[in-house]
Structures are given as structure tokens and as C-alpha cells.
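REQUEST ID: PR-0412
SUBMITTED BY: lab tech R.K.
PRIORITY: routine
TASK: structure prediction, single protein chain
INPUT:
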Amino acid sequence: MRKVFFFVFSSFIIFALSCEKDDLTLPVQVDFEFTMDSFHSEGAKKANTFFEIDKGILNIQQIEFDGRRDQGEDYYFTSGFDFLVQAQLHNKIMSQNISYDIPQGVYNRINLNLSIGDGSEDALCLEGRFQKGSMQEVQIIFKYSFQEQIEIKAKNSIGNDQIVLSKDTQMKANIIFNVPNLFQLVNMNMIQNAEITIKDEKEVIEINKEKNIDIFNLLATRLDNSMRVVFD
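STATUS: complete
OUTPUT:
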């Protein structure tokens, strides 16, 4: 009788563990969305002087996902694209939808590694404008043309590392470009004294590896810390 009971009990444990393991492999569809936080800086009061960055394009070549779980196996994948995926950060429009099936479970850490640019297309382009008093508005264009890999530690909607993916809940990974953080070291005086070029008969402040290099270098050093990922 004891042998029969032990066999039944053991079979129940094995069955329960098997079901738990199966549950941890069930897929959750996670949609990836790219957006941005706009930036606005003003000069002295009543001077009507300001500059702002409110448009952006990010070109994505590859996404790596590295998720760590206590229960269930860790999950890792690399997803490359035949063509660069262009994300218009200011209006959340993408040239290709990005969505992955990821095993459900409690992830104690999720890291994303974004590869941007491919050497022929700019990795990042940000646009805005500069206005000083009654002067004509001047367009601002920042271009980062180098290929770059940016590693981002994901958070949940309340800012914690633990992220729960459940097959019963529609999930979204929001990749947010923090433009205010990128421009944190760029003050109004630097913009006012920046070199202005004429493009299509309009005045433009171009910030790239060849023009306004001092501002470009400040922005380039903060690129790695100017993106965040929020799962909700």
C-alpha cells in the first residue's frame, strides 16, 4: 500500500513540476515602441529666446534581448533586420513593426542591446529650432553617423528591475530617447554662439562630426545614458 501511495505521490509531483515548466515556456507577445522626450530651454525672461528639440529619427540594425529568471531558464535572443528599421521618435511611426514572443515569467533583470546605424545611414538624427528675440527662426539639426551599440537596463512601469510577463496581459516595451538628458550640458550661450550655415536658403545650426564639433562631442558622450526601456 505504501509503495502504491509513494508511486502516486511521486507521479503527482512530477506532473506538477512538468506543468510548471510548461507554463514557463508559454509565449507572451511583446510589442516594441520607440518614442522620445522633447527638450525645451529658454533664455532670459521676456527675451523670447529659446531652443528646443522635438523631432527625432533612430535607425535600428539589431536588437539583443537578455532576460534572467529565477524560475525557468534565462532567455536570450538576437534579432537582426534585413534593412534598417527607421523609428520616427516624435510620432511613434516605424518603417517595420517590431514584436517578439518571449516566455512568460518573473524576470529579475532584462537588458536590451540596440545596434544603431550601419555606416551608410545616420544612426540618429534630432531636429529642433532656435529663436532669439525677433530674429528669424534657425533650424537645429544634430546627426550622429557612427554605428553604435547601446545597452539599456529595462524597468517596469514603477521603476523597478523586476518585470512580470504574463500570457494573459498584453505587454509593450517602450524604448524612450531622453533628449533633455542628452542636451543637459548644452547651454543657451553655446547655441547662440554656434556656427550657422545656409542650407536651402535657410539658416541652420548643424551639429555633427564636422560642424560645431564642441557641441557634438558633448552630446556624443551622453548618448549611452540617454535611453531607457519601460515594460508595461
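NOTES: Helices lie at 2-23, 179-182, 188-192, 213-221.
REVIEWED BY: pending
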